[in-house]
Amino acid sequence: MKSFEYHGEDPSAVLEPGQLSAAKSRPVPSIAMSPGTRKALWALRIFVVLLAILVTYTLIVQLIQ
Fold it and tell me: How far, in whole angstroms, is CA 65 from its chain's centroid?
């Protein structure tokens, strides 16, 4: 009988390479979110894009001066 060692949360330590690649190739299903959560995430995406534009603009203006 084989004895198994505890490897924490690392699946690559206990799975064979074929099992690991098969587990990685399975897509993860989308999570069900409420409409409010969806709107909040879209607002966050828009904020991040606007912030990136602002930072890029500031960097370019400071490099020109």
Answer: 37
Pair of tokens at residue 43: 């607002």
Q: What is the pLDDT of residues 1-17, one digit of tens each?
A: 455 555 566 767 777 77
Supply the pTM of this predicted model.
0.57
Q: What is the DSSP string of 24-60?
A: HHSPPPPPP--HHHHHHHHHHHHHHHHHHHHHHHHHH
**What Å distances lie between residue 62 and 43, 57, 65, CA to CA?**
28, 9, 5
Torsion of CA 20, 22, 24, 30, to 10 degrees: -140
